[in-house]
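Let's practice the habit of predicting before peeking. Look at the sequence and jot down your guess about where helices and strands might fall. Then scroll down.
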Amino acid sequence: MEEEINKLTELMRSSSESFWVRLRILLKQKNVNPDTTILAISHEDDKDFEFGVIVLENGNTIQYGISYLNKPIEEAEITEWNQLNEANYEEITVAQSMLKNA
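Done guessing? Here is the structure:
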């Protein structure tokens, strides 16, 4: 699982693919630094919608949704942004541990 989280985090931080570029822009608009954030979960949840969970440098965990319905990925918008108070996913616990050990 740690390997998958590392892979997602690296994509978020440095991939030149359109989705990852847009995600970095959207995170920065929320005052989140992608270079110090871990991407614990990311997957397509529906057509033109991406679900994800990030763990911030301070340990806070955010669940987000990005929609690009009827628009190019370059115009995608964050439509969900919720702080999670419980580690409902094993990936979150692993990501939080990775942050502490970084």
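How did you do? The mean pLDDT is 92.
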